[in-house]
Amino acid sequence: MSLHANPLAPTPGVLDDLEAIRILDRSGMLDLTEAFPQQCRDAAAIASSFVSQLPPAAKPTQVVITGLGGSAIGGDLTASLAAASADVPIVVNRDYDLPGFVGPQTLVIASSYSGNTEETLSAYRHAREAGCRIVCVTSGGELARMADADGAPVCRIPGGRPPRASTGYLLIPTLAVVASCVALDADSGPEALGAAIELLTDCSRRWGRHVPLADNPAKQIALALHGRIPVFYGTQGYRGVLAVRWKGQFNENAKSHAFANVLPEQNHNEILGWDQARTQAQNWSVVFLRDPLELTATPRIAKRVEVLRTVIGNKADQHEVWAEGTTLMQRLLSLMYLGDFASVYAAFLNGVDPTAIAGIDLLKSELARMEG
Ligand code: F6R
Fold first, then answer.
1. Is position 364 annotated as part of the catalytic site?
2. 315 given a catalytic annotation
3. pLDDT at position 1
4. Global pTM value
């Protein structure tokens, strides 16, 4: 199917209608998305000043990054950037409790944008009881209050934004803290950020609201997926983390269902789900998140994509999106950024405000009223 037409999208014109976008985007999610490169620049300055003031500490035997939703993604991205070079395990935890192995030799990074997420506060207390070295990344809230009282270092990031639109503030200090005690490759550590931010700045120009649908791949992907059930397949490694990020962004921004998986695991179970897919729902759309290096560096992964595409056949529309750049940092951030833009444009096609998260707000307020 052409990326420029989708019979399920009655009003693609909204994507190029700046006034309609202004009305739908009441809280400015598209402004924040377009300004992401600048956020990364600010975050790099905050992170390097914070890390330079950290007291000297012994090398940890493991790193646990604990957080939820938009505040966990910085941990996922850090772990995938560090995967090839880190000589200690880096684990991302999304729960009230930390794994049983944590102790005084563990570095725990508690990440909560608001500083008030109850699972993260509980995990922080668990880390304190286990005698872990704790560092917090937050805009304030109860997490900053507890950490200040305990003398744990807090990297304070600017507040007032949705956490999922604060990935620069959540990722870059987390990565800098990890890099301060674990050796990372040059193309995935903080020194790779400058070139990545340059690429993101160029992406922002190419994918922003002023570039019309005909020339804008982010708008084209949103249009292609409209009215369909998106299934994001990361081809391996960091693309698996990004498949989950794309899914979360389509859930929260576009208020639509989406699914995610990663190869090679997908090939061992979910591949068979395509047999019955059409009897379960009609409008599937698969997006493969790819890295140009996989064609030469991991030809067996490239072959898996080719065969999987044949197995899926005409049961779903199929699309491929490709990371840009040479360093791992550039490829990871550019492929994430395309999904951020696409999910915001998908919200406009759905006629919804990308910032609103009524269901999450209701859940948090009901739990806050509950005792115990
Ligand atoms: C909202 C969002 C959510 C939150 C999550 C945890 O934009 O992305 O997934 O990130 O509910 O809240 P915080 O980040 O404040 O700890």
1. yes
2. no
3. 43
4. 0.96
